[in-house]
Please model this.
Amino acid sequence: MSILHWLGLKPKESASPSERDVLGRITAALEGLPPERARFIAVFAFVLSRVAYADLEISEAETRQMERIVAEYGGLEPEQARRAVAVAQAENQLHGATGNYLATRELRALCTTEEKLTLLRCLFAVSAADDSISTVEEEAIRQIGNELGLTREEYVAIRAEFREKRAVLRDPPR
Model:
């Protein structure tokens, strides 16, 4: 008998059924792909939608940018990328608080440093799609970078590539 069982506690699963379902619905939209590849794209799309929804709205420009990125990096047909992004956005709006950390934790385990840096660039690109990276979006990207285990220097270097889109530098406080 384990000590947890003796204390009346059960060992925690890696994710509850509802947490697994968050990414499972995105993965299901990617039918025909190998399961591991579909899972990776689902997590990737979910994290992109996290930044797009950081300001509690997702613009059409952000959606189109997400679709382009998911199609390009996922090697998907445009229609398949559209489905994955639509489901990721809906799931993030419904379950973002639950799924956000789980998704970035999964990406941290799956990605190389170079892939994490590419993801960070993609997050800035989604946020900049409507021509302005809000402070809320920028903070979400910084937090994701931290969760992925990226250094402050890596984050700042990529953020500098999007300097002209940063609202904090374009619209100084009055």
